[in-house]
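re: that chain from earlier
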Amino acid sequence: MTSAEELEILPLPWPAPGADLRLARRPHRHRCVNCPSHYLCAGPDETGECVPLCGPCLWVELGSQLKMYQSMANEIDRRRRKIEEQIGSAECRRAQMLRRNLLRDSSVVAGFGRVVLKREESGSKASD
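^ sequence. v structure.
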């Protein structure tokens, strides 16, 4: 068995576009883009590329992202509570039920803010 120090250090991003997936998944190392360490890579992730950070740097990065998303979620929650205080919880629940019923009864697949995605009707032509 090959020791981690003997594995080839491959450039990032890896793998190159069109590379053989078997070749891309073979044991290899990368140089972290954030620190000077060489780390053993588990191969391409769901994006199709290898993670450019070593474990400790990735842990720090994910913690930063988590803190940012928690802050955003807290701000959204504060904004919703303020609106609920202004118009009342009964009005908010009524609007929530109305939206659920509209989504359930329509051809809408999902609604995100002002963006609404509709189901494609079978047999009809799109006319945009």
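Helices lie at 21-25, 55-87, 89-105.
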